[in-house]
Amino acid sequence: MKTKLLSLAILTALSAPAFSHEAGDFIVRVGAATVAPNESSGQVATFGEFAVDDNTQLGLNFTYMVTNNFGVELLAATPFSHEVTLPEAGVNDLAKLKHLPPTLMAQYYFGSGNLRPYIGAGVNMTVFFDEKFTNDLDGALSDLDVDTSFGLAGQVGIDYKFNDNWLVNASVWYIDIGTDVNFNLGEDRVSIKTDIDPWVYMLSVGYTF
């Protein structure tokens, strides 16, 4: 009797439906996305280098499965907001800025079935706005402007589908963001090359159409 029950359990597990991405599927994922900058910059006069803090926002991505294994994804989010500091000078509230980093990825999904790890590579455009100094260092700094960035991006992730439509996802991006930070230092206009190069971490739920 025990042998029959064990055999029945194995057959039931083997016959359980496998929910997999297929060509023509459109996937929407929504979750928390954290941008964690890995920044470096030129020297800001005698004040040292810029530092940029982490920020978490609502992340969105949209994937179209071209084949069962190849997909195209667009990453979007609500605007990320960062504080800029000068740690070497002890300035913890130098500036604030916002940005949007739309990223277009080509993806390859491994295997088949419910669990689908994937990798991706693509291009990023990061648009900065609402830049402002919150500490002008006694009038030394003014007129902050940060240029739009264009760069490459890489990605790893994994989907787990628990029925035909719904899934959970975890993914990580590395994005090449390099920009010029422009401002007035006294009477001089200066431009500081700055690499932000963040890791982006996202946990999300998704729906397949």
Automatic annotation (TrEMBL):
Alphabetical GO biological process terms: transmembrane transport
InterPro entries named in the record: OMP/PagP_B-barrel, OMPW
Signal peptide: 1-20
GO cellular component: cell outer membrane
Pfam families reported for this sequence: OmpW (PF03922)
Organism: Ferrimonas balearica (strain DSM 9799 / CCM 4581 / KCTC 23876 / PAT)
Protein name: Outer membrane protein W
Chief localisation class: membrane
